[in-house]
Amino acid sequence: MNKTILTITGSDGTGGSGLQADIKLINQLGGKAASAITSVTVQNTLGIQEFHDLSADVVRRQVEAIINDMQPQVVKIGLLRRADVVEMLAEVLRRYRPQHIIYAPVLKSTHGERLVEPRVYDAIERLIIPMCTVVLAPSDLPGGLPRRHGHANQLASALAYYLSLGESVDDAMLHAQTYLKALPADYAEGNSRSEELYNQFLANVERHYIRYSDVTFYAEQLNVSPRYLGQVTRRIADRSPKAIIDERIMAEITALLSSTNMPLKDIAYRLGFSSQAHLSRFFKKHKGVSPTESKKESKRG
Is the dihedral of CA 175, 278, 240, 243 positive or negative? Predict the structure, then answer.
């Protein structure tokens, strides 16, 4: 499957949401992002001062240039502020038929300002939403975390990345939520050394968790000591590096148990456990039940 992800949305000069945030997060995960901009905003951390919405013709040319050349099979849609852009986009996507379309509604700003007129959203509901694989809702966001600037946008970008790997929608959503939950509360705003290191650690875990579960490996990859890495993750996420690694492995085991008939010994081999018994002990330690019991409970549910 083509791993290019096309994001169609507005800009956010602060980098906390919009086009810039999409590209950042997708690239951070190891994906390949292409983009088409629908609206140029003038904004800072205090809010949006101006919109400069691009014409349907300009947006069309951007989208078709990427589709004709890079042929993305996952398209993420965010801010759409013009009805003619909605109509054009629906026509292009009906003709192109990407494998997945994700719509992350951008209707209000963080400060509560309305960004999309009701008639435009009516067109979105009528023309775009019926084509979508996923339309994100507040219930998709991981619980227990404060809502931050760009939170839903980050989930949509992570979801797009996992779908680009060929994962099922359920598995992709589980992995995206797990990744998002691990991000620091001020992910969109922070650029300090420790925050940068933390984000690099998460990206490395995502790339290597199947083969490596020891903290020392990741510390070496980041050229820091395990102790310092632990100080960083505890300060930002109040969790140890090992807890973050184990959570990612548990998410993968859970996904494989629920969505495949892969024997437990094969799952153990795939994820680098020394034996099936080793995996079972690991799973029970974290979830309180054995993998077999968990799978039975999942089927009953």
Answer: positive
Q: Give the residue ranges of DSSP H helices in the chain.
A: 18-29, 56-70, 83-96, 118-123, 151-164, 169-182, 193-208, 215-222, 226-237, 241-259, 264-270, 276-287, 291-300
Over its C-alpha atoms, the chain yields an Rg (Å, rounded) of 20
Rounded alpha-carbon distances, angstroms, from residue 205 to 62, 172, 286: 34, 16, 18
* Joined tokens for residue 297: 């409970």
Please tell me the predicted confidence (pLDDT) of residue 145: 45
Bridge pairing between strands 100-103 and 134-135: parallel
Query: What pLDDT does 218 receive?
Result: 96
Return the SS3 of 289: coil
Cross-strand pairs, 50: 42
Summarised one tens digit per residue, pLDDT across range 193-248 is 778 899 999 999 999 999 999 999 999 999 999 998 998 898 888 899 999 999 99
Which class for 285: exposed (0-12), middle (13-18), buried (19 or more C-beta within 10 A)?
A: exposed
| Residue whose entry in the numeric block shows the structure tokens 């951390």 | 45
Residues 19/11, Cβ–Cβ less than 8 Å: yes
Q: What is the mean pLDDT of residues 84-111?
A: 92
* Contact present, 56 and 85 (Cβ < 8 Å): yes
